Amino acid sequence: MPVLGLLKFRGCYVSITNCYIAGTFEIPHIGHARLFEIAKNYGWTTHCIINGDDFVLENRGYEPINDEITRISLIKQLPSVDNAVICRNMKEQKYWLETIKPEIIIIGQDWLGKDLHKQFCVPEGFFQKNNISIMFVPRTEGVSSTEIKRK
Asked: Model-level pTM?
């Protein structure tokens, strides 16, 4: 059981206040809600950065099924989300990281081994320099926006 507001990191407990969770959340589902609940269960302030419509079109080549206003409205309704904002482009990722100043980023385990510096548009060493830990969370079995779209 985690100590409220603390994370065991490299053998020591460190205080965490701001948690950063970014994504498209194209079709919000229970897996997304569980991601936010993990942060809230630790007692962290949870900031959700939602990829805007232009961001998705530019980086994925299509318009999301649910527009950004619908997605942010649904995400803001979750009791485990303290703050939600729309990220308009890749470079804005760095802006939100510098503004929110998170101690931790929670991201899906599917990002293990990928270049997170590139994904968040920050220079190599940014996370270490700013004392930002990364927590990789396993996907919720049987639930994904991609699978929902296929049906």
From this structure: 0.82
